[in-house]
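Work Package 3 (structural annotation) set out to generate three-dimensional models for the target panel prioritized at the project kickoff. During this period the team completed the workflow that converts sequence records into C-alpha cells, so that structures can be stored uniformly alongside our sequence database. As a representative example, we reproduce one entry of 1068 residues exactly as it appears in the project archive.
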Amino acid sequence: MSSPYMPVAGQENPHTWSDDDLSIEASDYVHINLRRSPHAPALPIISRHDPRVNKTHTFPTQTPDWSNLEVIHRNTLPPRASFYVYDTVKDAVTRDVSRSKTLSLSGTWKFHLSKNPFEAPEDFFQPHYDTSKWGDIKVPGMWQLQGYGKGPQYTNVNYPFPADPGKVPYDANETGCHVRTFKVPGSFKDHQLRLRFEGVDSAFHIWVNGKEVGYSQGSRNPSEFDISKFVDEGATNTLAVQVYQYSDGSYLEDQDQWWISGIFRDVYLLAFPKVHIEDFQVQTHLDDEYKDATLSIKVDVNTKASVVAQFTDADGDPIILPQVAIASPIHTFSIPIKNPHKWTAETPYLYQLTLSVGDSCVVEQRVGFRNSELKDGVFLVNGKPTIFRGVNRHEHHPDSGRAVPFEFLKRDLLLMKTHNINAIRTSHYINDTRLYDLADELGLWILDECDLECHGFGEIGGNPASWASDNHRWEQAYVDRARQAVTRDKNHPSVIMWSLGNESFYGRNHQAMYDFIHAYDPTRLVHYEGDYNAQTADIFSRMYTSCEEIIKFATKDEKWDKPLVMCEYVHAMGNGPGGVKEYVEAFYKYPRLMGGFVWEWANHGLRTKNGDGEEYYGYGGDFGDDPNDGHFVLDGLVFSDHTPTPGLIGYKKAIEPVQVLSGDNESITIINRYDHIVLDHLQAFWLLVTDGYKMPGAEVKIPKGIKPGATATLKIEGLPANDIPRAECYLEVIFCLRKATNWARGGHEVADGQIQLVAPSPLSLLKELPLPKLGPTVRQASTHVLEIAGSETVWRFNIVHGALLSWQKAGTELIHTPPVLDFYRAVTDNDRPTRFGQDWVNNRLNQTKCHVKDVTWAASPEQVTISVTARIAPPVLEWSVETNFLYIFTNQQLSIKVTGTPRGNYLPQTFARIGLTLSLNNVDTATWFGRGPGESYRDKKLSQRIGNYSLPIEKLFVDYEFPQETSNRTDVRWVEFSSSSSSSTKEKASLKAYFGPLNEASFTATHYRTEDLDKAQHPYELYRMKRKETVVRLDWAHHGLGTGSCGPATLPEYELKSAPFIYEILLE
C-alpha cells in the first residue's frame, strides 16, 4: 500500500520546492509544525493573495514512522524461527544455504547519505532514478565505517541526541538511501517471495520497483516482508531501502557500544512454495530420571496439509517418526524417544529433524535433548547443577563494526572453547543467527538477551523507569522485542535461558515481556538483572558485586527458591582482571551461585589512522564524537583484533575444568569441575621443572569415571624421591584432550597444575659463596663521587644523591640511569577510578625523590660497604619514607639492602610497588626463572607457570590499546638482561639480579618510562616516546590489579600496604 505521506507510485508530484518561490510578507500567516514525514510531497507556496491564506498548513502532515511510538512495523510478516526452505530432504540435511530457496542480496549497493530524512533525494526509490553518481556501500555494513557521515560515536550510558522520549530529532538524523537491483531466479516462479533483513540499525522503509512495501524498527531483530505483488519475475527489479540513524526505537538500544548505522546483517530474497511451513517449534522434555524423552513439534502451515517428519541421529541413522495430516494450519505432535543422547555444552550431541509439506518445501532443524529447571533453588540442566563460566559478547569487528564476517565470528567461539569458556550472554541483543548454530555444534550455553537497554533514562532526571519501562505507551515496543528474540531462537538447544534486556530499570513492561515469554516457551527460565529482587525474573542477577557480598547472599538462607547469577563481573578493562579465582571458588562452593559472565569478551576499538597515517584502534572521542565515554569501550578479554589479552589467559586458568588441589612426588589430588562429564576424554602427563631444565616424565593415569564435583587421587609413576634435585623444583602436570574435537586438536591443553617439591634457597647462600682473596678497592674520585674497583668491574657512586651512577664491566657501561627506590606504577584502568589510584596521584606518589641525609662507607679485604640514610618524599607534602640503603660491593657482586619506614600526614594507604627503577644500555633480551612466559601480577598470575624463560625485550611488552602499567613478570627468583645481537665481548656485558625466595618479586623491562605510559593516551603517542635504553624495574612487592574500572578494587589480600619493609637484592 502507498504511504499516507508519499505520492502515489507512478503519479507525478505537481509541486517542487525552489528558494525563489518562497515569498512571505509580514501580513502572511503560515504555521509550520515539524511533524511531517520525510516522504511528504512538497507543499505549494501560499501568498497573501491565495484564497487559502487563512488556512493553517502543517509540516509534516503526519508523524514519521521513525518518531512514532504507535508504529513499530508496517506490513512485516509475523516473526518466525530462523530457517531456510529447501526443495528436498537431501538438500536440507546439507544445511548448505546455497542449495536452499534463497538468493542473497548482500554485496555492493548504491548509496547516498543525507543529514536527515527530509533532505533525502526525492523519488530515489523509483526504478528510473539515476544513482550512477552515488557512492557504493557494502551490505552488510555500517556507513560510518565506510567513509560516510559524521563518523562513529561511543557512549556507555548517555543518549547521543536530546532526550525527548519517543521522539528523535528531525534535523540531525542521518539517513542512508540504499539501492540495488536483482532478478528473480526462474526456480522461484509461482512462489511467495519474501525479503528478509536480518538486522538494520535503527529503522527503515523499503520499496520494490517504486512501490512502498513497509517499515520496520528494532535494530538487531529480523524483519520479513512479502513482496510477491511488487516483483516482476521476468525483469530487473529495483530494491530501495531508506535507513534512519535514529528512531524512537533508539531509546531502547542504548547498549554501551558504538552508535553506528546501516544494513549490518545479511539481506535475502526467499521463495516459499504455495504450500509451505510458516513456522515450527521444537521442544524436548525429559522424564523424571532424565533418561527418556519426548520430542514435541508444533508446526504452522499456511494451509491444511500433511507434514512428514524425518529424524536422524548424529551418524545419519533414522529414527522413525509418524507422518501427520494437519487438519488445521497449526498442529502439535509428540513422539517418545528412548534414552536419547543428551545435549549439554560439554556433550553437544545433535540429532537432525526435517519437516516436509507439499512437493517442494522442506525445513531442517538440529535438535538437542536437554531440559533446564530450578530444583530446591539450584539451577539444573538435565538434572545436574550447572555453572556458567561465561562471557558477555557484543558483536564487533575492528573494521566493519557490528557487521561481523562469519569466519571472524567462528574464530571468536573457537577461542572461547579453547579457553574453557562454556557460556555466552548475548549482550544486549540477539546476535547473528549463525552464532547459535555454532553454539549448538561446539557446545556453549547461551543466555539469549532481548534487544533492550534504556540506560540513558537514568541521566535525564525523574524516575528513570517511568520514561519507558513502567510506561504503558511503550508496552508493545517491549513485548515486540521479546517476541522477536524468542520466536527466532526458540529451536536452539544452546539457548538455555532468556533475558529481558539490560539496564532498563524495572517496570510493568518487563512483566509483560515475561508473561509473553513464559506463555510462548515455558521450558526456559527468564533472567533480568534490573529486577533486583527477582519480583518477575526466575533468578536473581547481579553486576560487579564483590565476592564477599555474593557469598553473603548465597549463605543467608538455609532454603531458597531462586539462585543467583553474576550477569556481569570481573570487568576486563586494560591490565586485568585481577581477583578472578576468588569468584570461581565461590561459584563451586555455594550451590545457590550459578556462575557468571565476564564483562566483556572484546575491546571495541575501531581501526583508524591519525593525521600522520599511523594506524591505531580508536575509541570514544577519536572520531570527533561528543558526548563520548572515551576508552571505556576497551574492556575485553581480547584485543580489538580479537587476539587474546593476558586477561583471557588468566580467565582460562581460573575456570579450568580440572584443578590440581595438592600433591607430592608420589601422587596428586584433583577435582573434576565439569558439570556433566567424567574425565575419560583427557590424558595427563607429568614433568619435573627446576632452574636450568625440564625433565620429561610419564603419563599420569586418570581413573575412569571421576564424576563432576568429585575429587580423585592420581599416582605419579617414575619419580622416586632420590631423583628429585635439592634445588627448587616443581612437579608439573598437564591435562590434554585425548582425541580431537570439533573445536580443538588432540593434545590441546585444558588444564595444568604445579606442586612445589623443593623450596627455593635463601639469598644468603648466594652471598656466602667463596669470595676472591682480594676484594674491591674504593677511592674518592671527586668531592661527590666514590669509585669502587673490582678485578673487572668499576662502579661509580654519587654520595650527594646516594645513587649508583655507573657500572662498567670490561669497559662497557651497563647503567643508563641510576637505580632509584620507587613506589609508583603507571595507573591502570583498574587503578584510575579507585581509592588506590586516586590516592597515589593526589598524594604525589609519582613525584617522590631521594633526599640524602648522610652517607658512610668503609672497606675491608673482601668488600666495600656504603650506607645511605635518606628521606624519600614528594614535593608539597610532608609524608616520606625514611630509608636506609646498604650497598655491599664484592669483586663480582653488588648487594643492595633497603630498609624503609613510611610516615607522615597524607601518607598513601598503599603503594603501587616497592622496587628499584633503572635503565640499562645495550641489552635486548631478558632471561629469568619464575612465572612466565606471559605477563603476571600478584592477583593475575596463576596462568603463568614457574620455569626458565628467555624473550626479547620487545616481546615482553603487552601493548594495551590505552597505554598503562604493563608487562610485569612475578614470582621471579632471578632475571638477567643481556644482548643477544652483539658479537663483541665488550658489548655483551649483562646484568643479573637475584631476589632469592621472595614470593611475588617481579621485574619489568620495556623501552618506556612510567611517565610515558601515564602521558600517552594511544599507542602511537607512546611509540613516539620510545627510548633506546631499556627501562628496568626490579620490584620486591607489587599492588594487585583488581577490577576497579567497574567493580571491586584490589582485594585486601592483594593490597600493598604502606608499612615498614626490609628487602634485599643481589646484582652481578
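The two ends are 86 Å apart (CA to CA).
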